[in-house]
Amino acid sequence: MNVYSWQEAPSDAQFAVIGDPIDHSLSPQMHNAAFAALNLPYRYVAIQVPTGEVKAALSKLAESNYRGVNVTVPHKEEAIGWCMHVDGFVQEVRSVNTIDLRRHSGINTDADGFLESLIGRVGADSRSALMIGAGGSARALARALVRDGWELRIQNRTPEKAAELASAVGAKAVTEVDPTGADLIVNTTSAWLQGDSLAVPWEKAKPGALAYDLAYGAEPTPFLKEAAAHNLSTIDGLPMLIEQGALALEWWLGVSAPRDAMRAAIDGR
Ligand code: NDP
């Protein structure tokens, strides 16, 4: 995949994902497939933006007549500073992932994409969740889960951050990764990217619980492999990626997103 610097963003594209690193992103494939399925003459590209240059990059893209941008790691907080309008949820979780450049406006579709991806995968009476991690995506997901009625425990490598997030959203901070009693065990950490293991005592997990890893790749992550070996249901980050992208496209363009075409474009990546 071509990755552009923001100073050299192609003039024939209208949409982009910005991040650092960005070469792993599946968003260009997914959104270009959506535009093709909708017969829209748009192009979506990946743009590398170093930390500290997000405002300059967004201004340059707006001047170059780009319409919309997705924001990924590590810029979801920095990008808020460029927006003139963000909704209450973005302010609360300090995380924006979708920007309309013409309106200088930003929303967060990660949380709704995540909740949507749970439908049909957890039982209606499932209400207890353990979240591992307290970073940017955890902030959005924790708030969304508590609002959705889940009793949430949060564990994080840096315990102070788990305590701070738990207190902000009405969850409980825990020091041990203990899946006992949880219907849903969500890994929001980037431990795997760094080759680290989370050492979950899976033998304590409830039969039928769902293990959810926000990460995705060609192979299941060690977190999901271990959970599957203990007969748990598993889901990786792809369904959430598709849904957050579909919601972003619908917000930009006001049309229904072709989810099947988006899924087909990145399945078996
Ligand atoms: P952040 O950098 O904001 O947070 C990272 C979290 O991981 C922190 O809680 C950090 O703990 C923890 N962590 C990092 N390294 C380790 C380690 N070696 N051991 C244990 N914990 C560790 O990242 P994001 O929240 O933005 O993203 C997290 C993951 O979610 C990434 O893999 C990202 O790709 C994925 N993601 C997927 C999406 C999708 O659509 N599927 C959407 C958004 C994110 P500490 O506080 O101690 O530093």
Would you spell out the secondary-structure blueprint of this structure?
Layout: E1 3-5, E2 15-19, H1 27-37, E3 44-48, H2 54-63, E4 68-71, E5 85-86, H3 88-93, E6 98-100, E7 105-107, H4 110-118, E8 128-132, H5 136-147, E9 151-155, H6 159-169, E10 172-173, E11 184-187, E12 210-213, H7 222-229, E13 233-235, H8 238-253, H9 259-266
Parallel strand pairs: 1-3, 2-3, 2-4, 5-7, 8-9, 8-11, 9-10, 11-12, 12-13
Antiparallel strand pairs: 4-6, 6-7
The structure holds NADPH dihydro-nicotinamide-adenine-dinucleotide phosphate.
Structure description:
- This protein is α/β, with parallel strands linked by helices.
- The chain contains nine helices and 13 strands.
- It has helices at 27-37, 54-63, 88-93, 110-118, 136-147, 159-169, 222-229, 238-253, 259-266, and strands at residues 3-5, 15-19, 44-48, 68-71, 85-86, 98-100, 105-107, 128-132, 151-155, 172-173, 184-187, 210-213, 233-235.
- A seven-stranded mixed beta sheet has the order 1-3-2-4-6-7-5. The chain has a six-stranded parallel beta sheet with strand order 10-9-8-11-12-13, with helices on both faces.
- The structure holds NADPH dihydro-nicotinamide-adenine-dinucleotide phosphate (NDP).
